[in-house]
Amino acid sequence: MYDRKNTASDGAGAHGWTRVVSDVHLLCAATLFIILGVFSTFLFTRSGGTATPQRRARSALYRACGAAIFAAIGLICVVNLLHAPSGLHALFWLESVAVTAFGISWLVKGGFLGILADRPA
């Protein structure tokens, strides 16, 4: 039977199928955020050509966004270990920080924002 609540709010307290779904969800979410951090930190900073001031600034921004993602992942681990009160919604806010940081780096890398773009010679 389909249950509206497929993932438990407390994975440790879940039993049976709900526990399996919660564990798989946690593993996939952690993998996703790690990949987003790797993209921002390592993949986006790789590019050919001359090292213009704008390129160096973009690389610094990508690294800062990657650091924010990895910091959010670390803080999520700390919050889960300390069992922070659910009223703080720490998981929501930390995931929001990670997604927003990746979004900024993605939009800058894609040239959508136009900031830090190389100036024509």
User: Helical segment tally?
Assistant: 3
Measured by DSSP, the beta-strand proportion falls in under 5%
Number of domains in the coordinates? 1
Give the ordered list of helices and strands: HHH
- Counting DSSP E segments of at least 2 residues, the number of strands comes to 0
Question: For the CA atoms, what is the radius of gyration?
Answer: 18 Å
Helix content: 55-70%
Largest sheet report: none
Descriptive overview:
- The protein is an all-alpha fold and 121 residues long.
- It has one domain (11-109).
- Helix content is 64%, strand content 0%.
- It has helices spanning 16-43, 53-82, 90-109.
- α2 (53-82) runs antiparallel to α3 (90-109).
- The longest helix has 30 residues, at 53-82.
- The radius of gyration is 18 Å and the shape is elongated.
- The mean pLDDT is 85.
SSE map:
Layout lengths: L15 H28 L9 H30 L7 H20 L12
In short:
The protein has 121 residues and is mainly alpha-helical. The protein has helices at 16-43, 53-82, 90-109.
Key descriptive features of the protein:
121 residues, mainly alpha, 64% helix, 3 helices, single chain
